[in-house]
Design a protein that fits this description.
The complex is a heterodimer. By secondary structure, chain A is an alpha/beta fold. Chain A is 35% helix and 28% strand. In chain A, α2 packs parallel to α4. The chains are: A alpha/beta, B alpha+beta.
Chain lengths: 313, 451
């Protein structure tokens, strides 16, 4: 299969004084792919996103963005848009003026640059003529995304785009990103919210202390995951507990830190053992009302991988 | 198998400076303080000048203030003196001192870099936009004060600092030239503002820097410094326009001040640019250039000052105060002669020329004790003059308060009908006596031949 890459990074290293922010990072992001970047604070996510946006130059390694090798000078090639550490907006301008000024900066007529369409896509049409100083964090995030859309990017780089978003805003942002990806735009986004990454991304890269500890499809990450804790609500909690204890590979977690609910049982199990338990419950005539991981597979893998990396240092 | 995108690969194309300039102007003009300052500078001076000109008490301690009743061209010069002391340093602080720091405060540097793709072009656009707004504000101050003066008082001749009457057209040209001259030190302060804004990040010190530097230079001008040091400071050009209102004009100090200011403007802007280009924009905790601000900001400007002092000291005999007895005597006698003619016309006495008056002055400092040079309010001049067909020479005494920059105020103490009283009785009623108190200027450099 021949996949066109929007980003190809090999052995990227970047340091700030004595601090190594990125240490031999490899990254591939295909066109039309939404690629998640996860990692604890200080893992190097923002530094990596900054390199993609042309805000910094790697100390060593090779970075190609949209087919153009990143040089020693700052500035990303055309077709790259996005933000790190929050969108850059001018509070004394309205939302529309912010976008119009940006469109004019790129040499486009503000009237025909699609300012209204961009605002509409992120759900800010109603507040288009309000000054940005009155905007909430979520509204600013959406306006930052609208600003990126104006440039019709082929690579969109977003740092924590879900920060401060309410459910409606989140729906808008997810919809826009999915639409962009389907049109062939590569999206690289970082987030601490694993549910967002799981909902949006086809691949993720997990960074810990400047190094890649995992990179690949989410399905691969799930397969690599060890036992997870699951929340199980049934019509007969006592019978469910007996069956869980009797099923090989399953252990009942009595102190899972969850709110006490007599109908809920927390079990720790790999996926095959969990399948066997569900079959047993059905066979015993116990209704399964809820079965969900306490933490998402991505979050579990994230915690496991980053803790392993920290322990190895 | 994977391949990076090879087709349609486009390298970074930085945004052209004119577009960046427009973007920066939009941002500047959207700030409430700029929106407030622009109309204020274009409206308030007119009302100020008109108001002061129409009231009975004039600001006679301000240069040209005593002539605000007589001509509309005095008002813009009073405003210019005020602007050089207060308004221009503060305006440059508000505009240039904040033009880079505002991006730090808003956290928009990364956004701007992604959008423009060239730190050098961002610097150029910001510097030009800041300069445009500053020029707009200075133009407003000048135009508004001219309109206020001319509308309220009229287009009358102006009395120069040597007592000579300048025709309205001549006065207008010199007023415009004087305002143009202070653009040079204003640019120097603006460049210092850019430097402070880049070097000190979001620190309020960056915003205050031009005002503080201007204040320091004003204090320096009050000190009894050698002329070479005085002229080597860009703030001198805020007062050297005084030399335009003598005949011949005192162009030596004026041009020196302008050149020094422009060199400061170029150097400070270059240093600001260098600091800006070396900045690490990936560091969100950036809060000023720290030690680099000292080595790339302060040291070169200190070196420039030392070099300028050396050049001026070598090029001109200017290691003293520049205020010598003979120069004071010449200035007082010249101004007296011209003003005597003015008084003669007021009183409809027979006309007399300066040549026939043969006015002279004998001046002493501290009653002749100590060195007969330097600033101080202890200068005393005895002025003598001759009238046709009168055998005895007239005499009048003046107490002089000479400032370090060469400007002096002569306070008359002589015959009531000459300089002993602040009013003279003219056929049309009482009028201010031009010889009772007058302003003058001693040229600090020995470059201009005296007329």
């Amino acid at each position: 299969m021949d996949t066109l890459l929007a980003v190809r990074a090999r052995g990227i290293t970047k340091g700030f004084g004595d601090v190594v922010a990125l240490d031999g990072v490899d990254l591939d992001v295909a066109q039309g792919q939404i690629h998640g970047l996860a990692g604890p604070n200080g893992a190097g996510k923002t530094t990596l996103l900054g390199l993609l946006l042309g805000l910094a130059v790697a100390d060593s390694g090779r970075l190609e963005i949209l087919g153009t090798p990143a040089g020693r000078a700052l500035a990303a090639p055309d077709g790259v848009a996005g933000f790190v550490d929050g969108p850059g907006l001018y509070p004394s301008l309205t939302a529309r003026q912010n976008l119009a000024a940006l469109a004019a900066l790129r040499g486009r007529d503000a009237r025909t640059a699609g300012v209204g369409d961009a605002l509409d896509q992120v759900g800010l049409t109603d507040v288009a003529d309000d000054r940005v100083r009155s905007f909430s964090l979520g509204m600013r995030q959406r306006l930052g995304l609208a600003a990126a859309l104006l440039t019709e990017p082929r690579l969109l780089v977003l740092d924590e785009p879900a920060n401060g978003l309410d459910p409606v805003g989140k729906k808008h942002v997810h919809g826009v990103l999915a639409r962009l990806a389907s049109d062939g735009t590569a999206v690289v986004l970082s987030s601490h919210r694993m549910d967002d990454l799981e909902a949006l991304c086809s691949e993720v890269t997990i960074l810990a202390t400047g190094r890649v500890v995992f990179s690949g499809p989410l399905s691969k990450l799930a397969a690599e995951s060890r036992e997870l804790d699951y929340r199980l609500r049934t019509s007969d909690p006592d019978a469910a507990r007996r069956l869980a204890v009797d099923t090989a590979g399953i252990s009942v977690v009595d102190d899972a830190g969850t709110r006490h609910d007599p109908e809920v049982l927390v079990v720790r199990a790999p996926v095959p053992a969990l399948d066997e338990l569900v079959a047993g419950l059905v066979h015993a005539g116990v209704a399964v009302r809820e079965l969900a991981p306490l933490v998402s597979p991505l979050e579990a893998a994230f915690l496991a991988l980053t803790e392993r990396q920290e322990a190895g240092r | 198998m994977t391949a990076t995108i090879a087709h349609n690969a486009v390298r970074a194309r930085p945004v052209p400076v004119p577009r960046g300039y427009r973007f920066e102007l939009v941002k500047l003009v959207s700030q409430w303080r700029i929106r407030l300052l622009v109309p204020a500078c274009w409206i308030a001076p007119a009302f100020f000048v008109a108001g002061v000109s129409l009231q009975s008490t004039l600001p006679s301690d301000t240069l040209f203030g005593r002539w605000m009743h007589a001509t509309g061209w005095a008002g813009p010069l009073v405003m210019l003196g005020f602007a050089g002391t207060w308004a221009l340093p503060l305006l440059t602080s508000v505009v240039a001192g904040d033009v880079f720091a505002s991006e730090d405060r808003l956290g928009t540097w990364r956004h701007l870099l992604v959008a423009v793709r060239s730190p050098g072009r961002i610097f150029a656009a910001k510097a030009l936009a800041g300069l445009t707004v500053i020029l707009l504000l200075v133009a407003g101050l000048a135009c508004s004060s001219v309109v206020g003066g001319v509308v309220a008082v009229g287009n009358q001749p102006l009395v120069g600092l040597d007592g000579r009457l300048l025709a309205p057209g001549d006065a207008a040209g010199r007023v415009v030239l004087a305002w143009a001259c202070v653009l040079a030190p204003t640019l120097a302060l603006a460049a210092i503002g850019l430097l402070g804004s880049v070097a000190l990040g979001r620190s309020p010190m960056g915003l205050l820097l031009p005002a503080l530097v201007a204040l320091a230079m004003q204090v320096a001008q009050l000190l009894p410094l050698p002329v070479a040091v005085r002229l080597a400071l860009p703030g001198y050009a805020f007062t050297s326009w005084n030399g335009l209102f003598t005949s011949p004009a005192q162009v030596g100090p004026l041009l020196t001040g302008i050149v020094v200011s422009l060199v400061w403007a170029v150097l400070a802007t270059t240093l600001a640019c260098l600091l800006f280009l070396r900045r690490d924009f990936t560091n969100p905790a950036y809060d000023g250039a720290g030690r680099r601000a000292f080595t790339l900001g302060l040291l070169p400007l200190a070196a420039l000052t030392a070099l300028t002092v050396a050049v001026i000291a070598v090029a001109t005999p200017s290691l003293g105060s520049g205020i010598r007895q003979d120069k004071v005597e010449r200035s007082v006698a010249t101004a007296f002669a011209h003003l005597y003619r003015l008084q003669t016309r007021q009183l409809h006495r027979p006309a007399v020329t300066e040549a026939r008056l043969r006015a002279g002055a004998a001046c002493t400092k501290s009653d002749g004790q100590g060195a007969q040079e330097g600033a101080g309010n202890d200068w005393r001049c005895v002025v003598t003059w001759h009238l046709p067909d009168v055998a005895v020479a007239g005499t009048a005494v003046y107490q002089l308060d000479v400032a370090s920059d060469g400007r002096f105020v002569a306070d008359g103490d002589g015959p009531k009908e000459v300089n002993g009283y602040f009013l003279v009785r003219t056929p049309t009623g009482d009028a201010p006596n031009p010889l009772w108190q007058f302003d003058g200027n001693v040229e600090l450099l020995d470059t201009t031949s005296k007329g």
